[in-house]
Amino acid sequence: GIARKLALAGYGVCAMDYPGFGLSDGLHGYIPSFDTLVDDVIEHYSKVKEKPEFCGLPSFLFGQSMGGAVALKMHLKQPSSWDGAVLLAPMCKIADDMYPPFILTQLLITLAKVLPQSKLVPERD
Q1: Cβ atoms within 10 A of the Cβ of 74, count?
Q2: What is the pLDDT of residues 8-38, one digit of tens each?
Q3: Is 103 left (phi over 0), alpha (psi -120 to 50) or beta?
Q4: Which residue ranges does the record assign to the Serine aminopeptidase S33 domain (predicted)?
Q5: Domain of 47?
Q6: Spatial distance between the Cα atoms of 60 and 63, rounded to a whole number of angstroms
């Protein structure tokens, strides 16, 4: 992937799995609060940047898809903490022509509030 290519090019690369994603624990794909997720990532990278081997080095955010939305929110919350950000297809907005009908959106919002940990998508047999 991209992280491996950057590391092979000599860049220091740090990455993390969000809870419920990748190899981490938690209900797969469940994010109770996007802002809490962003704050957790900020805390993680703040600790990484405090290590002596990283102090004083330029720090850039890189995010792809949902990671792009996280990186953007991190940069907005801490603009002076980062030297820049690279966003690859950040998940920031659903295109108007891709948005489901209003009634379906309202139904899904209600279901998410009533059954926040239920999976509402088909699963493989």
Answers
A1: 20
A2: 998 888 988 898 888 888 888 888 899 999 9
A3: alpha
A4: 2-120
A5: 2-93
A6: 10
